[in-house]
Task: structure prediction
Amino acid sequence: MKSSKSNTQLNEKDAILDMLESEKQLMSFYTTALFEGSSKSIRKGFTAHLNSVAENQYCLYNQMSTRGYVQPAPAQKQMIDQTCDTFKKQQKQLAQ
Result:
């Protein structure tokens, strides 16, 4: 079956999810650029862009949550403790 424009439109949920994924990708790019920035003014600009993208991402996430498209499960204490332990082990390794 040949695709036409009329049967390939995104619904609202998919459109917001696509925007959210794009913002996450931009955050990754700006974070990398910030780490590799060679001057204070460049890093300041990347920081401003990163903060802006983070705010956009948060707004999109809130829109998805408000519309019932995402429903995060609360983290279990065991998962939190395990993640903290892993982080502490990594910190110790880096300090050596």
